[in-house]
Amino acid sequence: MSATPVTAPGRDTTRTVPWSDAFRAIFELALNGMIWTRRSLLMGALLGLPVLFAVLYRVVLVAKLPAQMTGFDLYGVIVALYVLRNALPLAALFYAVSLVADEVEGRTITYLLTRPVPRSAVLLGKFAAYLATTVGLLLPATVVTFFLLVTAQGAAGLHAAVPHLFRDLGAMAMGLAAYGALFTLMGVLLRRPVIPGLLFLYVWELLAHLPGYLPRFTISAYLRSLVTHRPPDEGLMEVFGQALPVGLSLLSLTAMAVVFLAAAVWIFSRREYVLEQ
Amino acid sequence: MSGAIEFVRASRWYGPVIALNDVTVTVGPGVTGLLGPNGAGKSTFLKLAAGQLAPSQGEVRLLGKPAWGSPEIFHRAGLCPEADAFWDNLSGFEFLMALLRLTGYGEAECRQRTEAALEQVDLMAARHRRVGGYSKGMRQRVKLAQALAHDPEVLLLDEPLSGMDPVNRRRIVDLVKRLAKAGRTVLVSSHILHEVEAMTRRVLLINNGRILAEGDVREIRDLMDQHPHTVSVRARDPRAIARAVVDHDHVLSLSFGAEGSWLTVQTARPDEFYGALLEIAESAGLEEMFAPDEDLGSVFHYLVPR
Amino acid sequence: MPIYDQGYRRYEARGPLRTLRFWPITREALRLVLSRRAFLGLLAVGWLPFVVRVIQIYIVTRFPEAGRVLPVDGRLFGEYLNTQIGLALFLTIFGGAGLIANDLRTGAILVYLSRPLTRRDYVLGKLSVLLALNASVTLVPALLLYGIGLALAPEQYMTWSLWWIGPAIVLHATLICVSISLLSLAVSSLTKSARIAGLGFFGLFVGLEMARGVLRNIFDVRGATLLSIQADLRGIGSALFGVTPSRFDLVDWPAAALVLLLVAAGCLLLLRSRVRAVEIVR
Questions:
Q1: Distance from CA of B127 to the nearest CA of C (A)
Q2: I want to staple C29 with a disulfide (CB 3.0 to 4.6 A). Which of B51, B201, C129, C232 is the partner?
Q3: Domains, chain B, ranges and CATH?
């Protein structure tokens, strides 16, 4: 160590580190902590279950598919009923509520808050890492599932189905962003966000199946409207389920993601983190 | 008043509990020990200084800027927290690299500084091992390394020697003293008195959220009139010394040791006593002298009621 | 001698080995969980179906014709316990997800195992917490419901043909409590975060339900129902209480029992490997 403090040439110590540099450094650090962990293994299993199923289908079940269904229909059921309604929101809850809570519990938040970086870069960098991880786990699994299921009986309908795949991938990315932003806000706001998060997913989101304007207060209603899959025999849910305009859905999901994230950043920037001794 | 760390009538409370009460203090270059029993307010003081908490009242400034809400000051300040917490999946090297990147250094400089800091705390051999597998002492050293790596002007050290073996303690104490000599401001928080005594004689004593005393240990001791100083001398003829000083009004009591060669004197004005002792030292055969209550422990003990 | 030796004297007596060594673990964990108001609220919600069933029994007692629409024979208890499975899951996530995970994170497991406690005592102590929580919304209210049935409608329940209700309640409730508790504890031992354990536990059920749903509903693979722990429990309950399950919940109860046994064995093996005083970090 030098006898007197040395400031590297060109380094401005009167301001924080440039936002983009801080964001990138946090993103890399957070991403490192998310991938190759047992947690991601568990999430990978949850999100990769459709792939397992698709393999099983190709190997064993293809002959048992009802005549009125195609591989694409089966893929649609998985996307609409499993991915969009369960796996995706759970993955968002799994990672997003923990963005700050993990650092506080692990007491490593002190290191992040005693660096010359803006707090907004800390939270947004971690959010970006969450998005990269979940998108990296979910989207490839969806693509593989799509190809395994749709081509099971030949590649005839593949060309027509591919645009739907891209649409689904886009919807998933939007869903991860919107749910992630909401759960990030919950994670910053609440001490125990898991149960409220689950209640939101499995109680509040039921509003999506009601008539009138109520579905517009949910995320799943907009997500459903972005995809074209309408799974058979949803029963009473199908009677009331409504498809909202695509443009409105895109705008609403984007707005929700932005507003929730902005609120989370605002709260995080002002909150004191007093670690229990 | 100007110093690297300034508290101006700063208070902090948590609900109805006042953790720090109307504190006005300045910490300048050199090593300052922040001392107090458990629950005295040392952690709150340090957290306020490190910008982790906002004062409920008053001001806390670090390097001239408000400590809370000024992350840019951490280019020039470093904190070694007390908590034994790391991202366990990272190696010591990766840990420091990640934090140096957050301080705005380029890749090459990060590497250079990481290696220098790890060298300084003797962790180069273990730098590629995961921090989760380090011993307690190694984890403490890597924590210290991350506080030092960016050459800060101000160092805030919370129990820096916790878990270290004697060899590494010595090394870190020497390092801290070198930093202070180079003009850095080092604030060391501890409740282990001899650790702080090894590093500095300048202390900030805190108890129940209030500053009890501030400054050189000796000066503080001298100001404590209600606790007379105790001086023990060993001489060939201790009674001759006793006869020479018994008439002085600052001598409050005299007692002889069991073997007969020791004399313990309680005096209100030790400097006058030493002056008187000098005159009789040769003829009385003075061999040894020490003041058992001039140390930090005694000062602490007198100031902090049990 | 007039002055007695005040030096160290070895304590020769041997204390008795307590068979309930694990009890302090259970007691303290329960105290912690029950001190949370939100949890007590969840518990209160878990008793609402009990209130509904009591009303059902009362209505049928007053208006026997209603018994055709609202049966109050053994099926009542089977249906009641089957609906409580979902509540037990929620309760387990809330109250028990972090039982082992928190100890692994804080290193408290070392403190436990440095006492005269074996790993078995530790697991038993933690398991008992979950068993108590789950029993509070399954076994206890079901037995209470039976007791109320006996009191309100003795002519209905005090018959030889329905003597089996009590033992069936105990058996089914115990099966529910043990299965869910073991699974939750096993998942909790896999991670150091209570949050991840809770969500992972929930995700496990969601994933298995999805697999069952697709295989059963679309491909009509009957054996797929066995994939769902909830369906297995409901299947055994239906067989015990004579409840007619839905077409998609049809499951052979011996196969379901075997699946639950295998799951329990797997959980115990996992706990055996994960519950250790120290973690080796490579």
A1: 14
A2: C129
A3: 5-216 (3.40.50.300), 224-303 (3.30.70.100)
In degrees, rounded to 5, the angle at the alpha carbon of residue A25 between the alpha carbons of residues A20 and A26 is 100
Chains adjacent to C (≥3 CB pairs closer than 8 angstroms) = A, B
Encode chain B in three state secondary structure.
CCCCEEEEEEEEEECCEEEEEEEEEEECCEEEEEECCCCCCHHHHHHHHCCCCCCCEEEEEECCEECCCCHHHHHCEEEECCCCCCCCCCEHHHHHHHHHHCCCCCHHHHHHHHHHHHHHCCCCCCCCCEHHHCCHHHHHHHHHHHHHCCCCCEEEEECCCCCCCHHHHHHHHHHHHHHHHCCCEEEEEECCHHHHHHHCCEEEEEECCEEEEEEEHHHHHHCCCCCCEEEEEEECCHHHHHHHHCCCCCEEEEEECCCCCEEEEEECCHHHHHHHHHHHHHHHCEEEEECCCCCHHHHHHHHCCC
Candidates C93, C196, C198; nearest CB to A39: C196
- Whether residue B40 has pLDDT greater than 50: yes
Q: In chain A, which residues have their Cβ closer than 8 Å to the Cβ of B14? A: 274
Does any domain span residue A9? no
> Is some CB atom of chain C closer than 8 A to the CB atom of B88?
yes
Chains A–C, number of C-beta pairs less than 8 Å apart: 79
Provide the 3-class DSSP secondary structure of residue A251: helix
Determine which of C192, C279, C281 to mutate to test the interface with B (most B C-beta atoms within 10 Å).
Answer: C281
Backbone phi, psi, residue B85, to 5°: -135, 135
Amino acid at C38: A
Cβ neighbour number for residue B301 with a 10 Å cutoff: 14
Rounded to two decimals, the pTM is 0.84
pLDDT in tens, A168-218: 999 999 999 999 999 999 999 998 888 899 889 988 998 888 888 888 999
pLDDT digits (tens, 9 = 90+) for B96-155: 999 999 999 999 999 999 999 999 999 999 999 999 889 999 999 999 999 999 999 999
A43/A95 Cα distance (integer angstroms)? 9
For residues C79-106, average pLDDT:
90
- Going by C-alpha positions, the residue among B198, B152, B146 that lies closest to residue B172 is B198
Residue A9, SS3? Answer: coil
Q: How many domains does chain A have?
A: 1
Cβ distance C219 to A102 less than 8 Å, yes or no, reads no
Q: Show residues of chain A in contact with B179, CB under 8 Å.
A: 1
In whole angstroms, what is the distance from residue C245 CA to residue A78 CA?
A: 25
What ipTM does this complex have? 0.86
**Alpha carbon distance B261, B244 (integer Å):** 16
The domain spans of chain C are 23-274
Say how far residue B7 (Cα) sits from the centre of its chain.
Answer: 18
Residues 132-151 of B with CB under 8 A from A: 146, 148, 151
Contact C88, C130 (CB under 8 A): no
CA distance C192 to chain B (A): 12
Give residue A245's domain range.
19-270
